[in-house]
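Aim 2 progress update. The chain analyzed this quarter is reproduced below.
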Amino acid sequence: MSGVTVADVCVDRFNEIKMKKTLKYVIFKIENRKQIVVEQEGDKDKTYDDFKVALPEAEPRYALVDVEYETDEGVKQNKLCFFFWSPDDKTTVKDRMIYASSKDAIKKKLVGVMKEVQANDPSELEETEVIATMKK
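Predicted structure tokens:
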């Protein structure tokens, strides 16, 4: 544990995306190395590509995304997925460490999120890769 806390608004947005289905994604950041806060959100009209564009190129982030996909049987599904974005070659060791050690703090607050994607490179954010994870 890093001592980083989770702002209440993060849980509010989680409940909004989970229960009300009014958001496509929520991106979280660690502010002042002290607290996880909501940085950005995308309403339900946004796409997965909009989410990828919203992630900073050179800074770690956490995110929740309502991923829409089709099962192998052809059934449309939506599941929440937790993302840990940490571009290895563009972030500082200090940033990567604080995000890695604070991940459990936010995950404990997001009860019921079944899937997780850790991406260290843009290729790991490809929608086909994420959907493969969702189907497991």
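The beta strands are 5-6, 23-31, 35-43, 61-70, 76-85, 115-119. Residues 93-109 form the longest helix (17 residues). These observations will guide the mutagenesis experiments scheduled for the next reporting period.
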